[in-house]
Amino acid sequence: MSAINSISRRGFAVVTGSAMVLLATATGVFAQAAGGVPRVVKIATSAESKPLAWGAIGVEPQGYEPDLLRAVNAKLPQYKFEMEGVADIAQETGLATGKYDMACGGYYRSDARAKQFVIPENPMGASLLKIYSRKDSDISAMKDLVGKRIVPLTAGGGTYRFVVSWMQENPTHKLEITTSSAGIPYPDRLKEVQNGKFDALILPSNLGEQTVIEEQKLDIKASEPVFSANTYMLIHKADKNKTLAEDVNKVLKELKEDGTMDKLSKKWFGEEIVRYMK
């Protein structure tokens, strides 16, 4: 029977008996050590979700998630992260086909995503759901939405699931909700609240609503968070990405604990989000 004569710390295994030499690496560092070239990791980021992330193809992505990815990459020199701003609808498609190794877009964890992709245990941040309404309205909490016209929710999305769950837990407060898959940009939805077509919009606050409100001088206010959920990166499910997922997961934990996430969220969102992470 073949015997392993020696195993170096770089993961070399010299196998006698069959006169074969097996080369392996368990850390992902060997490729860099041998050739000096880090592995390129293709990442899809949101193209139009300022301040979470923005920057179309050919433009260096900016925002909270791109900055956090740069902080992760700084701790993992065996990789070279290459980010590209991608339309939301194309991110998961590109990830599923293997065009991208990772995708970041304020994603919630779901059973469907967990089956299709690798999702690190440690989150990238937290998505805070808030209610956007006109400043002259009396809306400040979910119960205030009874009898109000609510902007249609994305069918099956995280906000929709939250609202349905909230109504189940609060059966005396019946909300009138509708769903839509039209993909109308949220700046246009805010304008629909402004002009009175709808009374309220429920959305994660990390999509840049406050920037739109200020730049377009909308008479819109945001409530305190009515719900918070962790947000995660998604990784293409492939053997080559197993070590990548482990490495990224470890660093995300470190960046949460050393204050980097709070520093970046304060920079981009104006508030620290770690306290909302579960």
What layout of secondary structure does this protein have?
Layout: E1 4-7, E2 12-15, E3 20-23, H1 30-35, E4 39-46, E5 48-49, E6 53-54, H2 64-75, E7 79-86, H3 88-97, E8 102-107, H4 111-116, E9 117-118, E10 125-134, E11 153-154, H5 158-169, E12 179-180, H6 186-194, E13 200-204, H7 209-215, E14 220-222, E15 227-236, H8 242-257, H9 260-269
Parallel strand pairs: 4-7, 4-8, 11-12
Antiparallel strand pairs: 1-2, 2-3, 5-6, 8-15, 9-15, 10-13, 10-14, 10-15
Brief overview:
The protein is an alpha+beta fold and 278 residues long.
Describe this entry's structure for a reader.
By secondary structure, this protein is an alpha+beta fold. It folds into two domains: about 35-125 and about 230-275, Periplasmic binding protein-like II (D-Maltodextrin-Binding Protein, domain 2, 3-Layer(aba) Sandwich); about 125-230, Periplasmic binding protein-like II (D-Maltodextrin-Binding Protein, domain 2, 3-Layer(aba) Sandwich), CATH 3.40.190.10. About 30% of the residues lie in helices and about 25% in strands. The protein contains nine helices and 15 strands. The chain has helices at about 30-35, 65-75, 90-95, 110-115, 160-170, 185-195, 210-215, 240-255, 260-270, and strands spanning about 5, 10-15, 20-25, 40-45, 50, 55, 80-85, 100-105, 115-120, 125-135, 155, 180, 200-205, 220, 225-235. Strands 4, 7, 8, 9, 10, 13, 14 and 15 form an eight-stranded mixed sheet that branches. It has a three-stranded antiparallel sheet with strand order 1-2-3, with no helix packed on it. A two-stranded antiparallel sheet has the order 5-6. The longest helix has 16 residues, at about 240-255. The termini are far apart. The model is unreliable at about 1-35 (pLDDT under 50).
